């Protein structure tokens, strides 16, 4: 085998390995522990319900979980964990969650459409497709700005539970658009209403101070 053919074979092998690696990357939800174990939580002992907020605000925390670079696109992922220690289920069908920043701005979680729009690329007039310098043709796919598995991740990662069973825990991610906010967690609260018990009565609102997470993280980094 001559040098030219050997080089082409090596390039092809590298591309195949990279393709397999991308295909193997899939969203896997992080394990959800009881809500009381997270630094930032609000416990209602009388109602036997605790809610916790665990921000994924750094690359070393987010990269093992997510395919998509949400922080690079201005979104803050927050893992919402709800634990029901009571003997009756609670309903989340009418839950309302807001991220209230230090300047009192109230941010709603992004929808799937919001995330798709932020990650989508719009071709500029005059742009031309780049020339492929490799000796083999590359597979083409629609240029949506989403890597393989990205669309599924947007669907599967978002908090979607409608109820929490007795002595159970439900969790999922909320994505808040914090573009332009330099310190979105400092002095912020996650404010949650609309949770109902088995009789349909609404529980007291939950107010999770995210400063508790920052304090814990600062203390951990100083050890």
CATH architectural name: Sandwich
Protein structure class: alpha+beta
Count of domains: 1
The fold-level CATH name is Immunoglobulin-like
**Estimated share of beta-strand residues:** 15-25%
Number of strands: 10
Helical proportion, percent range: 10-25%
State the low-pLDDT regions, or none. Answer: 13-23, 122-131
* Mean pLDDT across every amino acid position: 85
Radius of gyration, in Å, reads: 22 Å
Q: How many DSSP helices?
A: 5
CATH class: Mainly Beta
| Main β sheet profile | 4 strands, antiparallel
Listing every helix as H and every strand as E from the N terminus to the C terminus, the arrangement reads HEEHEEEEHHEEEEH
Strands in their spatial order, largest beta sheet: 1-2-3-8
Query: What shape does the CA trace take?
Result: globular
The separation of the N and C termini measures 57 Å
Provide a descriptive summary of the structure in words.
There is one protein chain. By secondary structure, the protein is an alpha+beta fold. It has one domain: Immunoglobulin-like, CATH 2.60.40.1150. Helices cover 24% and strands 23% of the residues. The protein contains five helices and ten strands. The protein has helices at 3-24, 59-62, 112-119, 150-157, 211-221, and strands at 41-44, 49-55, 75-84, 90-91, 96-100, 106-107, 163-164, 168-177, 189-193, 206-209. The strands form three sheets. A four-stranded antiparallel sheet has the order 1-2-3-8, with no helix packed on it. A four-stranded antiparallel sheet has the order 6-5-9-10. Strand 5 (96-100) and strand 6 form a beta hairpin. The chain is globular.
């Amino acid at each position: 085998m001559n040098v030219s053919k050997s080089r082409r074979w090596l390039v092809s092998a590298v591309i195949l390995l990279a393709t397999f690696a991308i295909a193997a990357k899939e969203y896997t939800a992080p394990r959800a522990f009881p809500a009381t174990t997270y630094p930032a939580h609000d416990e209602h002992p009388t109602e036997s319900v605790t809610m916790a907020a665990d921000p994924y605000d750094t690359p070393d925390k987010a990269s093992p979980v997510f395919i998509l670079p949400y922080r690079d696109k201005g979104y803050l992922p927050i893992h919402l964990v709800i634990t029901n220690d009571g003997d009756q289920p609670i309903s989340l069908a009418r839950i309302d969650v807001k991220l209230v920043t230090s300047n009192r701005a109230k941010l709603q979680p992004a929808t799937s459409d919001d995330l798709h729009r932020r990650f989508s690329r719009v071709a500029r007039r005059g742009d031309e497709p780049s020339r492929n310098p490799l000796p083999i043709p590359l597979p083409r796919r629609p240029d949506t700005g989403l890597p393989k598995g990205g669309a599924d991740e947007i669907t599967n990662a978002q908090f979607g539970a409608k109820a929490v069973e007795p002595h159970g825990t439900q969790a999922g991610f909320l994505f808040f658009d914090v573009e332009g906010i330099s310190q979105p967690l400092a002095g912020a609260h996650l404010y949650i209403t609309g949770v109902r018990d088995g009789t349909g009565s609404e529980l007291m609102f939950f107010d999770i101070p995210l400063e508790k997470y920052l304090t814990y993280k600062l203390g951990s980094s100083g050890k």
